[in-house]
Design a protein that fits this description.
There is one protein chain. The protein has about 425 residues and is α/β, with parallel strands linked by helices. The protein has helices at about 35-40, 60-70, 90-95, 110-115, 125-140, 155-170, 175-190, 205-215, 220-245, 285-295, 300-310, 325-330, 335-355, 380-390, and strands at about 25, 30-35, 80, 100-105, 255-260, 270-275, 360-370, 375, 380, 395-405, 425-430. The strands form two sheets. The protein has a nine-stranded mixed beta sheet. A two-stranded antiparallel ribbon has the order 8-9.
């Protein structure tokens, strides 16, 4: 599949362009049921090109972003995303000859975006990368130990020492796109060879993983670790070269700001559209999910703790949001901690959306992808609450699409209030 085969769409009047695969939801005249994977069949893999070079929880799927770009923007437009996460909007913007400005509380954004939207136009050389990887194995004079009090809790001593040598090399070598490729390979290996369950977002030691590492230590684990780094680095190189081929004639830009609280940042750039997916109501701990990566990349415990305190479950609201639907949910809650979480979520989420939407040009669209989670057994229609709030502030409700989740469960294995995960996600369209 060639990304350049995706047909150009410039329909800025979607009410005249109802998708053929849309099915009217009889339960609500406002909701149209669609499958974004069917609407954008050209994207057959959500991790294509540079989307999957670094693991990240609850990624924004590119089909939704591509549909919003095709329908609500034109070439060379600027798109803003105040909850950038893994940078899906930035990648899809560049592929579609658009520009993007991204904000996220997580510092990881600053490390991954230079690779994900690599600006070079010359293909990268496998020989150069392999030479640098070989040097990493041979050069053990530098050690790098993360500034993390509990680092020894997460690793067997011999594995930690080996990783510190590999990271010591890459932190001291001359900075280049090749050194950054090696870092993402080391990130993968550093989690896989730790005591944490690498298949779940949050750090969590388990008896299964402890036993697996213990068994691994009786094998040729050094060779396996290096092989994993080489394999992932070479795969990343191929994906970067594919991205270069797809964008060799594009001159678009992505501005990214990690470590920024988008609920209080002053947005400088005027934009033509907002495309974003805010964090889930019951799962916002993205920094805690990626802190192992952040420590190996050189960030300090103080930096990570300061940003973690700004994540929604750990900060107080500075105002209480009121809408008809939100007030009904709030009145039904009997637990103070859940009421506080609800108020914090909508306070800071709406702050961030307002900061960005206030910089939208007249007649621009805000495309907001959310779920309808349950809190204490009560369904929270986030798209309806946002519609009610912003409609009172001059935005026009255009439509909302319901995308049924068929192939994945959101947080289905966690012990939370949604053990089966959410059944649908919704793309809300508002017009400035």
């Amino acid at each position: 599949m060639k990304k350049t085969d995706i047909k150009e769409q410039t329909s800025l009047f979607p009410e005249q362009d109802i998708p053929k695969t849309a099915i009217k939801d009889n339960s609500s005249d406002e909701v149209e049921r669609v499958s974004f994977r069917e609407l954008i069949p050209e994207i057959t893999d959500t991790g294509y090109l540079t989307h999957a070079i670094v693991s990240y929880p609850a990624k924004f799927i590119p089909q939704v972003v591509q549909y919003a770009i095709n329908t609500y923007t034109r070439e060379d437009d600027w798109i803003i995303d105040p909850f950038a996460g893994s940078g899906t909007v930035g990648v899809e913007a560049v592929l579609s000859k658009r520009n993007a400005v991204l904000y996220d509380l997580n510092l990881l954004l600053n490390h991954i975006m230079p690779l994900k939207v690599h600006q070079g136009k010359e293909l990268l050389g496998k020989e150069h990368l392999c030479k640098l990887l070989d040097s990493m194995q041979e050069n053990r004079k530098h050690h790098f130990m993360p500034a993390w009090t509990n680092v020894a809790y997460w690793y067997a001593p011999e594995i930690l020492n080996h990783l510190s040598q590999l990271w010591g090399f890459v932190h001291n070598v001359k900075h280049s796109v090749y050194s950054e490729i090696i870092k993402v390979g080391l990130l993968k290996a550093s989690k896989r060879f730790s005591y944490t369950e690498h298949r779940t977002p949050k750090l969590a030691r388990s008896k299964r993983k402890l036993a697996a590492i213990e068994a691994l230590l009786h094998e040729n684990w050094q060779e396996q670790l290096i092989e994993m780094v080489y394999t992932h680095c070479l795969k990343t190189l191929r994906n970067l070269n594919d991205f270069i081929l797809h964008t060799e004639h594009h001159q678009n830009r992505v501005e990214f700001y990690g470590g920024v609280d988008s609920s209080h940042v002053t947005v400088q750039r005027e934009c033509n559209a907002l495309i974003t997916s805010p964090p889930y109501l019951q799962a916002q701990e993205y920094i805690r999910s990626t802190k192992m990566d952040l420590f190996w990349l050189g960030h300090t415990e103080e930096e990570i703790k300061d940003l973690s305190r700004l994540e929604i479950p750990y900060r107080k609201p500075d105002r209480i949001i009121h809408t008809k639907t939100l007030d009904k949910v709030r009145d039904r809650l009997t637990r103070k901690d859940l009421t506080n979480r609800l108020d914090s979520y909508f306070c800071h989420t709406i702050h961030a959306l307002e900061n960005s939407m206030n910089r939208l040009r007249p007649n621009a669209y805000a495309c907001i992808f959310v779920g309808n989670p349950r809190i204490d057994g009560i369904t929270v229609e986030i798209w309806r609450i946002l519609t009610e709030y912003f409609s009172e502030r001059g935005y026009t409700f255009e439509k909302v699409y319901e995308d049924r989740i068929k192939t994945r469960q959101l947080f289905g294995t966690r012990k939370n209030k949604n053990p089966e995960g959410m059944k649908s996600e919704y793309l809300l369209i508002l017009k400035n």
